[in-house]
Amino acid sequence: MKNSRLYLATVVICIFIFIGNKNVYADSSDDIIIGNAEVEKIIEEVCLERQVPCEIVKAIAYKESKMQQWYSDKTPVVSYNGNYLGIMQVSSYAGYDNVKLKNNIYYNLNAGIDILFLKWDMSINNHSVPKFESMDKSIIENWYFAIWAYNGWLSRNNPNSNAKAYQETVFDIAVDRYGAEISDIDTSLLPSSGLPAKRLIIANAETEHKSISFEVIEPVESIYPFVDIAENWAKDIIFEMYEKELINGITEEEFKPDDNMRIDEFCTLLSRYLKLSGLDTYENRFDSELTIWSKEHVDLLDENNLLTIYDNDVDFSKLITRGEVAQILAEYIIKFDTEGKYTDVSDVVLIYEDLPATLKEEDLYRIKILNKADVITGRDALTYAYNENITRAEVTAIIWKMMKSIILN
After folding, report:
1. Most distant CA pair in the chain: distance in Å?
2. Where are the beta strands (DSSP E) in 130-238?
3. Which DSSP symbol is given to 187?
4. Domains within the chain, CATH numbers bracketed
5. What is the pTM of this model?
6. What is the pLDDT of residue 98?
7. Which of 21, 64, 259, 393 matches a 20 to 30 Å C-alpha distance to 126?
8. Secondary structure of residue 131 in the 3-state scheme
9. What is the per-residue pLDDT for 8?
C-alpha cells in the first residue's frame, strides 16, 4: 500500500515519533526548571500537533500540578502516594515509561493527551460516557465529559451535587487563567446526583467556542496503513502494532477496527506477540478445522496450556468475548509471573456489578490479575461486560498494553 510505510516530516499524530525529537529531559540540562510562560508555549505546540484544545490541556496541567513538571529543587513532581507523575499527573500504572513520565515534559504531556483522547472516545465508541449531538473536537465545550472522565468517571464529579466538580474547575481555570471563552453546560440535563445515563446525548451549546489549536493546521497525507482507522480511537496503537508486524488488516486496505474479533484472530495476534516456542510432539486436539494462517498459532498457545478454557469442540471462527480474552491473558501471566508481581491480588477488590454469578473463584482471580496489571479493566467503573464481544481495535489495544507494561521473567 502506498501509505503503509510513509513517514512524513510533519507527522502530527504518532506520539512516539513526536516525543523522540524533543529533548526537555531532567538529566540533559543543568537548568530544567521551566517557567509557566514557556510551559504554555510547549503545551500550545503539542496541542497543535495532536489536535486537542490547548486551553483544556493547560487548565488540566494547572489543576493537576500547577503546570509544573519539576519542583524548584529539580526533582520530578510526584503525588504524595507516588502513583501520579509529572505535569499531567499520569498514573504510574498506565503502561508508560515512568522514568520518562518523570523526566520528559513532552512525553508526559503526550501521555496525558493520550488518556484524554481515550476518555473522549468513551463517548464515541463504547457509549459509556454521555456525548453532545455534534462531537467536533475543535469545540472546547464538547470536551466536558472527557475532562470529567479524565479524573475518573465518578459520581463525585456531578456538578449538581458537587460545586467543585473536576471538569467545572478545569473550565473555570481555562477561563480565568488562560482567557478561554466557554459557554456553561446545561447541568439541568444531568441527574441531581450520581452518574448520568451512559448514552445521554446533550444538545451543543447555543454559542460554541473553537480552540486556537484548530485555527491553523496544514493538512497532511495520512500515515496510516489502513483507510478506515484514521478516525478510530486506537489508530496510533494499530499503526504501531502493524509496523511491528503483529497485526494485519481484514484486507490490504481495511483493518475493520470496530468489527468484533474472532477466536482464531485473537490467538494469532497473541501468539505473534508472545513468540512462544513449540514442542515437536504436540498433536492438535481441536475438532474445529483451523485456517492456514491461524493453525500454527493455536497450536503454540495450546502447547503452552494457554487455551485450557476451551474444550476440544470449540469453534475458532466464533467471536471471542472480553471474559475469554481476560482468562487467556491471565493464564499467561500466571504461567510466567514467577515473582508474583501481578498474581498477588490480595489488594484487589472487584466492584463490577455485572459479573456473572456463575463465575468461579479461579475466574475472579484471573480478572483481578488483569485489573492489577491495568491491562483489562471494566467498560466503566461498575460494568465489566464479561460476556460481551470485543472489537479488533480493543484487542489490539489490550495486547499493546501488555507489550508496554507487563514484564515477566
Report:
1. 70
2. 131-132, 201-202
3. G
4. 15-214 (1.10.530), 235-405 (no CATH)
5. 0.51
6. 92
7. 64
8. strand
9. 32
Helix or strand (DSSP H, E) at 79:
none
The 10 Å CB-count burial string (b at 16+, else e) for 217-229 is eeeeeebbbbebb
Distance of alpha carbon 184 from alpha carbon 207, whole angstroms: 9
Decide if 322 contacts 385 (C-beta within 8 A).
yes
**Short-list 407, 273, 399, 405, CA closest to 338:** 407
Residue 402 has pLDDT above 90, yes or no: no
Rounded to whole angstroms, the Cα distance separating 1 from 93 reads 36
pLDDT digits (tens, 9 = 90+) for 169-201: 999 999 999 999 999 989 999 999 999 998 899
Question: Which set of grid coordinates corresponds to residue 127?
Answer: 457509549
Residues linked to residue 262 through DSSP beta bridges, in sequence order: 319
Residue (of 399, 316, 382) closest to 154 by Cα position: 382
Please provide the DSSP assignment of 331-393 as one string: HHHHHH-TT-TTT--TT-----S-S-TT--HHHHHHHHHHHHTTSS--SSSS---TTSB-BHH
Whole-number Å distance between alpha carbons of 211 and 137: 9
60 — pLDDT class (breaks 50, 70, 90) = very high
- Tell me the sheet residues that pair with 331: none
78 alpha carbon, distance to own chain's centre: 21
- Please tell me the distance from the alpha carbon of residue 102 to that of residue 31, in angstroms, as a whole number: 16
Cα 120 from Cα 118, distance rounded (Å): 5
Please determine, for residue 225, whether its predicted confidence score (pLDDT) is greater than 60. Answer: yes
pLDDT, the chain, mean: 86
Return the residue matching grid coordinates 490467538: 267
Unique residue bearing C-alpha cell 512524513: 8
Stretch 200-212: mean pLDDT, rounded? 91
CB atoms within 10 A of CB 208: 17
**Residue 54: all three cell numbers together:** 490547548
